Amino acid sequence: MTYRAPVEDLAFTMRHVAGLEESIAEGLYPDLSVELVEQVLEEAGRFASERIAPLNAPADRTGARFADGQVTTAPGWKEVYTAWAEAGWNALPCDPEWGGQGLPTLVQTACVEFWNASCMSFALGPLLTAGAVEALTAHASEDLKRRYLEKLVSGEWMGTMNLTEPQAGSDLNAVRTRAERAGDGTYRITGSKIFITYGEHDLTDNIVHLVLARLPDAPPGTRGISLFLVPKFFVNDDGSLGARNDVRCHSIEHKLGIHASPTCTMVYGDAGGAVGWLVGEENRGLACMFTMMNNARLAVGAQGVAIADRAYQQALSYARERRQGRAPGAGEGMSPIADHPDVQRMLLTMKATTHAARGICLMTAAAIDRSRLAPDAEARRKAHELASLLTPVAKAFSTDIGCEVASLGVQVHGGMGFIEETGAAQHLRDARIAPIYEGTNGIQAIDLVLRKLPLSDGTTVRGAIAEMRKVGARLVASRDEAFGATAARLREAVEALDDATSFLLKALSGNSPADALAAATPYLRLFGIAQGGTALAMAALAASEARAAGDTNPAHAGRIALARFFAENIATGARGLAQTVMTGASALADAEAALAG
Ligand SMILES: Cc1cc2nc3c(=O)[nH]c(=O)nc-3n(C[C@H](O)[C@H](O)[C@H](O)COP(=O)(O)OP(=O)(O)OC[C@H]3O[C@@H](n4cnc5c(N)ncnc54)[C@H](O)[C@@H]3O)c2cc1C
């Protein structure tokens, strides 16, 4: 099954949900026009569909191979990666000072969706390189920037993120990798890291590892962690590659999915200590790493959307061909399964939740852009808080949707979905990692509730809810009957979110964090439903207005029908989630007894 990049829909969502036109009009993107953005998406979509997507299934079968400390990527990967980097795609969001194109996060997020839908294993390496570039741009010394950034930006080299150790996953307090001052301004790094994506491979001549480690005199916990740049090969003053550093890949993992993405155990300092250079200040490494992790969290959210869209496209195509039974009102003979109401429900659930998650990711990207580019400091601060609020929702809601949609994709295929040759199973296997890495979805939910709701004493979350209500008011004012009960159901969902938010803010200020922690995951889901339903409604309102103005594009009717399906069939779960948030914690008090039984 091939992948068709949904260029038109991305462009429409950027314009009518993520405010692309307003941002251009306000001067946030001085070098951009809607037409230029559409051209970029068109080109990216073509590269993704034509060059990368055909690698997906064969690379899943071959996987990445490990022998004698070397990792060999799947056949054809090096050629496609080189062509992709040479076409400038790696440099898209990067600072022009280092050879980047300086395009906004909004455009990058749309492209990240395309790369990951075409092949998640392939796109994962560049995703982490983008995070490394961002962390180095923000925190590295001028010398490190000059030595490394240009080649990381061009994609000639790739970057990695080294946080995880066997005893330190969600809890980075437990990081044990050691860093010793060498006395010449460099450090010697010793220890091992597990699960390092693209820690070793044959796509580029050099690999630049960003590694969290602890100095001997560091304070305990996360206040004592520093960030180091550790290259695979040293880089001479003239930019040429020197000797090999004391870092090696010990082995790669055999995994449920993303088989072609090498997940490496890395060993630092077997032969006396890997040479590392400090990024930022000593003991402030986690703050630097967070620059990279926030970037990566939104990108992982876009991976969830990507895999969901690819699974949906495949399921729809299969459902239109496969014939079984007779659908209501159909003539003689077997109907395509796509005509059966229950299959239609599955397909619509897949499409509506995918589009809702896409809307959230693009809104988050737009807020990140505004937080950097708005001329007014107060506008930047507010946008930063909105982006901080939305990032855990974008990551966790979208990656949960990725799994759910990929699972429905298998279901639509019936028995064939369980058979590897259709490819539906691969999407489900690949999707499953995204709720786990870049901070598990449970950790995202806790971040949302404990750190993001209290921003500006709750003003930020209240502001987000007020924006949702404004869209609700526009729905009420719309005379388009095609909306059905969209306005009413969405209003109920937003009010449910408001109630749950008040409950949690009270629990937090009343020092009952246990209640808030117990409620975090259902609250994040509720937030995603209200925000995602709002995003769909914004697109549908724009479609309705276009239709009223005589635009006969058939996609417009589809947008209204999709928003209505979401409101009437999925947003209806919001009240139940709010109930769980507000009363469900008490049942956890008996968790021990229930689990023991
Ligand atoms: C394929 C793959 C690629 C990866 N790539 C990288 C990479 O490039 N670089 C890197 O550094 N790491 C990488 N990781 C590691 C990944 O980020 C971690 O697996 C993840 O952060 C979870 O840590 P853990 O596996 O130790 O799980 P744990 O932290 O043990 O969590 C297990 C469960 O407990 C929950 N939990 C843990 N703590 C809490 C808490 N305080 N409150 C509530 N619930 C909690 C979690 O949500 C989860 O459900 C990768 C992992 C995989 C599988």
SSE map:
Layout: H1 7-16, H2 20-25, H3 34-52, H4 56-62, E1 65-67, E2 70-72, H5 77-86, H6 105-118, H7 120-139, H8 142-154, E3 158-162, E4 178-181, E5 187-197, E6 207-213, E7 226-231, E8 233-235, E9 241-244, E10 247-252, E11 263-268, E12 274-279, H9 285-321, H10 341-373, H11 377-412, H12 424-431, H13 441-452, H14 459-477, H15 486-509, H16 513-548, H17 555-569, H18 574-583, H19 585-588, H20 591-596
Parallel strand pairs: 3-6
Antiparallel strand pairs: 1-2, 4-5, 5-11, 5-12, 6-7, 7-12, 8-9, 10-11
Flavin-adenine dinucleotide (FAD) binds next to β3, β5 and α13.
Q: What is the helical fraction, as a range of percent?
A: 55-70%
Architecture per CATH nomenclature, i.e. the level-2 architecture of the domain at 288-324 and 336-587: Up-down Bundle
Strand content: 5-15%
How many strand units?
A: 12
Spans of at least 5 consecutive residues whose pLDDT stays below 50 are: none
Multimeric status of the protein: single chain
CATH class of the domain at 288-324 and 336-587: Mainly Alpha
The helix tally amounts to: 20
Largest sheet: 8 strands, mixed
Q: How far apart, in Å, are the first and last alpha carbons?
A: 47 Å
CATH topology of the domain at 288-324 and 336-587: Butyryl-CoA Dehydrogenase, subunit A, domain 3
- Structural class of the helix and strand makeup? alpha+beta
Associated small molecules: flavin-adenine dinucleotide
CATH homologous superfamily designation of the domain at 288-324 and 336-587: Butyryl-CoA Dehydrogenase, subunit A, domain 3
> Radius of gyration, rounded?
24 Å
Shape: globular
Mean pLDDT: 96
